Amino acid sequence: MKTKNFLNHIDQLAEEHELTRQQTLEAFEKSIISGCKKNYQIKSCHLDFDKEYEEFFLYKEYLVMETEPNTINEENVNIKKITCINLEEAKKLKENPQIGETIRIEVDPKNFNFYASQEFKNKLNEEIIKFKKENIYIFLKKYENKLIDAKVTSIKKNFCTLELEKEVQTVLLNKDKLNNDEFEIGEIIKVYVTEVQKTTKMPKILVSRICTEFITEIFKEFIPEIQEGIIEIVEMARFPSLRTKIGLLSHDSTIDAVGSCIGDKSVRIRHIINILKGEKIDLFLWSDDPKELIANALKPAQINQVSIIDFEQKIATALVTEDQISLAIGKFGTNVQLATIVTKWNISVKVI
Fold this sequence. Notes:
Layout: H1 6-17, H2 21-40, E1 45-49, E2 56-65, E3 83-86, H3 87-91, E4 102-107, H4 114-141, E5 147-155, E6 159-163, E7 169-173, E8 188-197, E9 204-208, H5 212-222, H6 224-227, E10 231-239, E11 243-250, H7 257-262, H8 267-275, E12 280-285, H9 290-297, E13 305-310, E14 315-320, H10 325-329, H11 334-343, E15 346-351
Parallel strand pairs: 2-3, 11-12, 14-15
Antiparallel strand pairs: 1-2, 2-4, 5-6, 5-8, 6-7, 8-9, 10-11, 13-14
Helix pairs in contact: 1-2, 2-4, 9-11
């Protein structure tokens, strides 16, 4: 069947739905075959294109069998895939048909009845949606495990709706928000994409502001030395909304890891804390020496001495003066708990 400007119509449809030409042709092929099956009540049809895609040829297919169709053994032929006819019926369609031959009869889709035409339209819409979902999934998948900007479009009791790339929306649940997060509609916020999931509808994007990866990516974005690998975040422990403790290591002896992250006049760290809505950030130098590591991790408290109680079990005691005990333990015990998590040492704090 020759169709005027067929390829132009395909390209227009592809552009309208942000698909490739190949995806649109595939959607068209599946749809017109589905309509053909509906129109002729058969199991198999075939579509061919010429080289220039100016013409396409649609066929209904039959398999010629020696026995009656209802007596065919499924072990010999998969009758679920093609409509079978006997030799006498085949002779009505073609001269000198052969047993086992697949007969193709060209048909014109202009002759489709109402139900077949509807089947074609519905199938085409279904295939377009499928490809759009797949393209959006592929597009969004590259943002998985990354920090992105999102626009707040609505605020509900248990979540807020965010708009991402290509007008794709997701929700930030209250459980994934910081305690001090108070947004306004239209505000651009930073979130970490923990996962992009395929669903029966559009891809589902899971985002968070409380995971440790959120902190890591913020530091990468605002501290060039971390992005470039000069400064390494070795370990991190976090109580979201309260406090985060980060162990840093500089791979350049001329660069101070902690000082670089704090920035001139504390500009860098203040900017990060603002994004975190006031969450406290403790930065300390990482060390391979357990005593030095534990003392550094307990900062801002001044540690007089660290005693290793059991090296294999990683049990240690930090000794401080009485005026440093509250700093060493921290509010609600957060300082010593985070130090224990980040160093992987079981730390107790005692007064000298």
